[in-house]
Here is the input.
Amino acid sequence: MSHALSEGFWPRRAACTLACVLRIAHELVEAMVAHARADHPDEACGLIAGPEGTGAPKRHIPMINAARSATFYEFDSEEWKQVYDQMWDNDEEVVVAYHSHTHTEAYPSRSDAGIASQLGLPGAHYVLVTTKDPDIAEVRSFRIADEVITEEPIEVTGAPEAVQSYKFAHTPDSTVYDCS
Amino acid sequence: MSVEVRVPTILRTHTGGKKLVSGEGDTLAKLFDSLDSEHAGLKGRIVTDEGTLHRFVNVYINDEDVRFIGGLDAALADGDQVTILPAVAGGM
Here is the structure.
């Protein structure tokens, strides 16, 4: 269960090599939430790519969950290769790697952190969307390196005034603000 | 004979930042041996001590995932392109 990985289990501080905030257009957040809702009760997964070296999320790429499971996700290896080839040709990199939790909170699980640390996507923001509440999805963003999970705030750009179908949450205790 | 290898960001610490390297070998296992002499530590991130591919790494020859074509014994021909990618996976 992801909530077993609460404060105290992981070291609090982690080095942040990029800005410790995810700055993202509201349309992209809505696209991730819509994908998570569409695949519920299975976990959904995908990427947002951006021009190499900019760290700016631009292009939403929903991926197939090859595990087709409510408790696990894995990119389909053939689709991942095709997407990577497109990114290579476009000089893009992975800026956001997201997946949903359908029954638990939007916090990286032990396997999320373990696998991302073994051979992960350095520089990527790992975004979690939980669809456990049928009305309001919760969206949180993390850095994961060497099994250290560091939460970061999400700053949405161009957000309309309208009522949202999602909310952001982060636990101040586990957020590192003093990184440079 | 020479085989071009696309290196994912996470492993570019072993290639001096290069995203594209080349190596030699008529099988994937020999290719990784040849790469390791120039890019120390690279092979160990992909191949286990038991001589199998790590669970959460994807290796492709051209567009084929090598798990379906013989794993480390998969044959390479001149001009083939090898791509290494992290498997992206997790669960609650």
Observations:
- Helices of chain A lie at 26-39, 77-89, 110-118.
- The mean pLDDT of chain A is 84.
- The beta strands of chain A are 22-25, 45-51, 59-63, 72-74, 92-101, 125-130, 137-145, 148-152, 154-157, 166-168.
